[in-house]
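Notebook, bench 3.
Goal today: get a predicted structure for Enoyl-CoA hydratase from Zhongshania marina so we can plan the truncation constructs. The sequence was checked against the plasmid map this morning, with no discrepancies at the termini. Length recorded as 271 residues. Pasting the sequence as submitted so the record is complete.
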Amino acid sequence: MSSQPILCDATLTVTNRYATLCFERDDVRNALTGTSLIDDLCSTLEWANRNKDISCLIITGAGSAFSSGGNIKEMRDKVGMFGGSPSEISDSYKNGIQRISRAMHSAEIVTIAAVNGAAVGAGFDLCCMADIRIGCEKTRFGETFINLGIIPGDGGAWFLQRLIGYQRAAELTFSGRIIESAEALSLGLLLECVPKETLLAVAERYAKEYASKPPQALRATKRLLKLAQRQELGDFLEVCADVQSQCHQTEDHQRALKAFLDKTPAQFEGN
């Protein structure tokens, strides 16, 4: 396993084949801007992609919030990524918050957001970029950009409508309203809503389940799920046939077949 990335505002723990990244900036409600959390998250995703011993990443926050998104005071003061000319601000978005969008979308491992509290603005969009979202009674979501006279500059409109459809995404984006965990569950934004004290344990249960699968096949399945969103069926079937032919040649495939036929647990090695 390659050495873990050096993080400033988050902690990373590794258990077997999954890792947990926890935002540790409760003093600013885990704001993504004005902290090192963008760098920490992107570095962790790059590390996980390279590290074939990792199959799943849980993302959560310490304290009362998952993430408040952009730092409102920095917006007011026009500092940091919010300062400068329009072209400079545009570059700051591309080289700042949009790095998260690209990194999450290109993640080869399964990503799980364990939403411990409020996730608004870019914090909400980050949740929408994850493969799986588990919430609790403290979970709050809000696509709140319109309330500040701005748009989802991190590409949130692209992700949200793919999760819940155009009409529901439009309503949340146009209104900028905060929704509670029960509504988030009914909209399909959350897979489960559990008591906060069990949130991480439930997320870990999912992570352990996914991490127990053949690693190469799991990553290939994730890539195909993403590819299916933008490719025509005929082209997609061609890719599936090619990927499947490679899966049939792996030793883990043979291990899985033997375990199934022998009715014994399988142990996979990623080859």
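The chain is about 45% helix and 15% strand. The chain has two domains: 10-211, 215-262.
Flagging this for group meeting.
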